């Protein structure tokens, strides 16, 4: 949130602090980033919007960095996950395939992990890698934040984790009070542009340009008294004609002007701003700090805004329903229209229509009598030519005693809807109303009229009526349509990483989201099953046992879980079983509180099982009972967490070895390799030893300090480690001594190749593709030992490990 604007929110924050329990926000640490502090919820609490996004818990305000990337929409937002009032700002994160069904994700930008104030900003997808920040197959998501200047953060894993560019150094310094950078692609000039609010010489925006998102040049400044914070600048085709493109400059309070942008300067011949939304357009009101998505498919311009007036027992604030923007010609000049995105139809059911009714105060029965609903859409057209009614409209959440939570009123004499101007068009008044548990949005006149509000609707059974009314005379209802809208929640996975299709469903046990994946508590067998089915496949995943007796991978299963399961069992075994039969077992230590990686390969009746990245299967069995079925996970008798449930051949590519073992930290396997997290030094060790050898691999620090190749190590990890350190060094060390170092830039998130050669006491380290070693040192402390991987104070990825 912003400093001056926060003064507007103090009364709201004080009220919420008095009404709701609140704890101070807290900065996180690298080892538990990304953060997922959210308690379980069914999203069914009173006043919780069923098709308006709200944070799973905590405070939210401004939308940030709205982008479409890698097949889905990303909604970032200003966020305090630790309390119900504004406090130390994080960037919250949610994703959606369709702008309707949102899934909460872990925190994206977190104080203590990422530098700076992390206030409001924008984002883009760098599809052409103009920034050079791409390190993998995903297009970089690049976001911008900061006050009195702009810092850059980027993600190469589809928004799962973010790195600070150049340790958070500001790529733009602005000496005046400034905030809220919004970046966009200037297609006509094939470069990036940015608007940033600044108080220099009054309210206004600085405009900058860049070829690569990292190096920016000041271009111009546009000032206006109304242009206060959270600016947005985007093109729209007037009346849908691409040849008549105009540019829209907006402020946080939804005021806007229409003009031109020549790549450096915004100009307008209509400097008097228009109001885009008629709600309470101040910080904490019904419509504030709106932002448009970048890269939306089909060239759409889609907008979402913050609604601060909605709150419940565990959350504060929500977002307006996404609206498609257009620009149309009117007698008063070009004007913005806002229309709910068409994907809203995916929630529709139980639609009814009434036509050609005359309404007056004595109308009986009301056409909508008997219709009851909690969340719904109403569309209506009224003919006001010759109407004698003083007012008409809808009663929402009507009760049997005639009272209602809200009344939507059109005043025929004043020509206003909810007190805001709305002139009839060709003698007709049209309106479209979205009713959610805590939100009321009204659209009219083809989207030229938009009003966004929060409303605490009573969802009890006697408070779900809908009524039509006409007072003081008659009015003709041409048509009215009621459409029930179902909930949009519960279709995605917040923290379970998997390439399997949803929706997932549970068969037994209580499953919840945690930072480490999907967690279950079960008195007996419990299954969590995807919608993906298969016959012959490679299937793998991580199982973290807490108190559970066993946990594993389920495959070729029916909807109840009956199929095959390969699990780890704390009685001391890996087991392949199906209902009624233990097919095969492998004796090995399995401790409570341990994490294991299982991989299964099915080829017809043949089923093989691998444990903890070992080269050879520990089970190779034959059974033909189930030929095909669902993929999922199983836990038996206790609590456990499952994660990284993936099909395909991805995973850790490594040298021949038996079972690997962790020594501190958390180690899991994803399609791109071995992931490790440690607060201090943590090791993942193979059972293979060596004295003189060449050992190499690809390593990256996704957030944090260092990662490296460990060799000649004891069972606790004490040995040599050659690592990359984000302080800017390649280092060879052993416990108690840094043997040698080579200074070079190490960028978080980028993979680097390390190669180590040992010959007796001589140890050489190569970095990247260089022909010569960057370290050539002598040390005789350890002569032989285990191969492994190390991570220190951060998160790391290792891949393509080989010994020769």
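^ Assign residues to that structure.
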């Amino acid at each position: 949130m912003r400093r001056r604007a926060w003064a507007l929110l103090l009364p709201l924050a004080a009220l919420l602090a008095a009404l709701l329990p609140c704890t101070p926000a807290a900065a996180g640490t690298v080892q538990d980033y990304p953060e997922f502090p959210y308690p379980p919820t069914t999203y069914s609490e009173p006043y919780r919007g069923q098709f308006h996004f709200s944070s799973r818990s905590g405070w939210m305000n401004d939308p940030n960095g709205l982008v479409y990337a890698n097949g889905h929409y990303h909604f970032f937002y200003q966020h305090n996950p630790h309390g119900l009032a504004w406090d130390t700002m994080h960037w919250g994160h949610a994703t959606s395939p369709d702008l309707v069904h949102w899934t909460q994700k872990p925190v994206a930008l977190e104080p203590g992990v990422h530098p700076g104030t992390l206030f409001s900003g924008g984002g883009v997808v760098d599809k052409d890698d103009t920034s050079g920040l791409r390190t993998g197959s995903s297009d970089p998501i690049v976001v911008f934040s900061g006050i009195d200047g702009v810092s850059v953060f980027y993600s190469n894993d589809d928004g799962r984790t973010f790195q600070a560019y150049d340790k958070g150094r500001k790529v733009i310094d602005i000496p005046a009070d400034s905030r809220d950078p919004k970046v966009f692609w200037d297609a006509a000039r094939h470069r990036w542009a940015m608007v940033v609010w600044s108080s220099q010489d009054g309210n206004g925006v600085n405009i900058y340009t860049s070829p690569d998102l990292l190096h920016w040049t000041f271009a111009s400044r546009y000032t206006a008294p109304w242009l206060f914070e959270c600016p947005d600048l985007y093109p729209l085709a007037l009346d849908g004609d691409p040849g008549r493109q105009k540019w829209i400059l907006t402020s946080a309070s939804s005021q806007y002007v229409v003009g031109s942008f020549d790549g450096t300067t915004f100009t307008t011949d209509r400097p008097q701003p228009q109001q885009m939304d008629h709600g309470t357009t101040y910080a904490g009101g019904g419509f504030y700090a709106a932002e448009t998505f970048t890269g939306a498919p089909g060239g759409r311009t889609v907008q979402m805004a913050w609604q601060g007036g909605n709150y419940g027992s565990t959350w504060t604030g929500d977002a307006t329903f996404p609206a498609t923007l257009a620009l149309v010609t009117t007698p008063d000049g070009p004007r913005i229209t806002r229309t709910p995105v068409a994907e809203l139809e995916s929630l529709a059911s139980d639609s009814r229509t009434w036509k050609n009714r005359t309404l007056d105060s004595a109308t009986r029965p009301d056409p909508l009598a008997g219709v009851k609903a909690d969340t719904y859409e109403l569309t209506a057209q009224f003919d006001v030519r010759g109407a004698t009614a003083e007012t008409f409209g809808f009663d929402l959440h009507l009760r049997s005693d005639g009272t209602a939570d809200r009344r939507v009123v059109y005043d025929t004499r004043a020509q206003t809807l909810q007190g805001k101007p709305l002139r009839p068009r060709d003698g007709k008044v049209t309106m479209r109303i979205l009713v959610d548990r805590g939100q009321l949005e009204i659209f009219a006149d083809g989207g030229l009229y938009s009003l966004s509000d929060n409303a605490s609707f009573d969802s009890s059974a006697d408070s779900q009526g809908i009524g039509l009314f006409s007072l003081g005379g008659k009015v003709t209802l041409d048509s009215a349509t009621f459409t029930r809208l179902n909930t949009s929640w519960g279709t995605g996975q917040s923290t379970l990483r998997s390439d399997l299709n949803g929706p997932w469903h549970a068969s037994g046990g209580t499953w919840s989201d945690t930072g480490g994946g999907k967690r279950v508590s079960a008195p007996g067998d419990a299954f969590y099953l995807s919608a993906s089915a298969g016959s012959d496949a490679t299937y793998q995943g991580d199982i973290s046992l807490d108190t559970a007796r066993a946990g594993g991978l389920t495959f070729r299963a029916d909807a109840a879980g009956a199929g095959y399961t390969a699990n780890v069992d704390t009685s001391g075994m890996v087991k392949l079983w199906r209902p009624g039969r233990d097919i095969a077992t492998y004796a090995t230590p399995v401790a409570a509180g341990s994490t294991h990686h299982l991989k299964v390969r099915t080829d017809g009746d043949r089923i093989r099982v691998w444990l903890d990245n070992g080269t050879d299967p520990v089970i190779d069995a034959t059974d033909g009972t189930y030929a095909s079925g669902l993929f999922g996970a199983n836990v038996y008798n206790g609590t456990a967490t499952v994660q990284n449930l993936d099909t395909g051949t991805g995973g850790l590519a490594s040298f021949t070895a038996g079972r690997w073992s962790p020594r501190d930290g958390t180690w899991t396997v994803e399609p791109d390799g071995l992931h490790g997290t440690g607060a201090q030094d943590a090791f993942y060790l193979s059972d293979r030893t060596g004295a003189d050898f060449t050992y190499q691999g690809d390593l990256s620090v996704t957030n944090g300090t260092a990662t490296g190749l460990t060799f000649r190590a004891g069972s606790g990890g004490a040995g040599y480690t050659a690592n990359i350190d984000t302080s800017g060094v390649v280092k060879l060390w052993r416990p108690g001594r840094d043997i040698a170092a080579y200074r070079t830039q190490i960028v978080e998130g980028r993979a680097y190749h390390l190669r180590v050669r040992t010959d007796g006491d001589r140890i050489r380290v190569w970095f990247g593709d260089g022909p010569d070693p960057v370290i050539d040192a002598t040390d005789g402390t350890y002569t032989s030992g285990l191969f492994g991987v190390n991570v220190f104070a951060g998160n790391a990825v290792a891949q393509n490990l080989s010994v020769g």
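Residues 6-19 form the longest helix (14 residues).
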